[in-house]
Design goal:
CATH class of the largest domain: Alpha Beta
Number of domains: 2
Largest sheet: 10 strands, mixed
Order of helices and strands: EHEHEHEEHEEEEHHHEHHH
CATH topology of the largest domain: Spore Coat Polysaccharide Biosynthesis Protein SpsA, Chain A
Strand content: 25-35%
Shape: globular
Structural class: alpha/beta
Number of strands: 10
Low-confidence stretches: none
Helix content: 25-40%
């Protein structure tokens, strides 16, 4: 197994439906890939979506009856068999073609990076959760450009062998919206292994973050609940405005 795509999902079945469909279509060499989906105790129609893939050899489904939050990634990563692991947020709704080949190519070209993500489409309704350009510098090797700086986990890759060097630290770290899996991973790759994090400038996905798309897909209440549980009240207010 060359590359594992892992998705943690909870009560966003309309996002998940589109995410899975387009992820599978984007793969260049499916025989080198696996897709592992962990349902974090969803109570909506998520499991109806997942049932459609029960006979798909590319897809493995893990069902949990309780929502363990972002800490579920600790279990999820352990199931990945690939040399490379790619975190995919369930609200990423489009991907570049030959996604697997893109990640393998960049991870091989930039061995001094531990965590590499796709760039995000930015429009009038979302910034894709990416900070502004002032946070980044560029590094170019063989015509390939990485933007070095904050690297979100919307669709991001790391090497399993390097993760194993600090997996015990990761296991005992309490993950939450303030200390999410992507930020913690980037921190450990840098502090423990001296590896950078960056974004592939010229390969973009559509990360439908923000209240506009949550409303369009019917997930506003879910997002408000998530941020309320995390006591991120400014986000709660932002999302509640879209209910009016």
């Amino acid at each position: 197994m060359k590359i594992s795509f892992v998705i943690l999902t909870w009560n966003r079945y309309k996002f998940l439906e589109k995410c899975l469909e387009n992820l599978i279509e984007s793969l260049g060499t499916p025989s080198n890939c696996e897709i592992i989906i962990m349902d974090n105790g969803s109570t909506d129609n998520t499991r109806d979506v997942l049932k459609r893939y029960q006979n798909n050899k590319l897809v493995k489904v893990l069902l949990r009856e309780k929502n363990y939050g972002l800490n579920a990634y600790k279990k999820l990563f352990g199931y990945a068999k690939g040399e490379y692991v790619v975190i995919v947020d369930d609200d990423v709704l489009s991907f570049p073609q030959k996604l697997d080949d893109i990640f393998i190519d960049y991870m091989q070209t930039f061995p001094h990076y531990g965590f590499i993500a796709l760039n995000v489409i930015q429009n009038e309704f979302t910034n894709g959760a990416k900070p502004g350009p002032e946070f980044y510098t560029e590094e170019i090797i063989d015509g390939k450009i990485l933007q070095t700086g904050p690297t979100g986990g919307w669709c991001a890759c790391f090497r399993k062998k390097e993760y194993k060097k600090f997996w015990l630290n990761f296991r005992f770290k309490n993950l939450n919206m303030m200390k999410s899996e992507d930020g913690v991973l980037a921190h450990y790759f840098q502090r423990k292994l001296g590896l950078k994090s960056g974004i592939i400038k010229n390969a973009t996905c559509f990360h439908a973050s923000g209240p506009y798309y949550a409303k369009q897909y019917g997930h506003l209440d879910r997002e408000i609940e998530k941020y309320a549980q995390s006591k991120m009240l400014s986000f709660v207010s932002e999302y509640e405005e879209y209910k009016e």
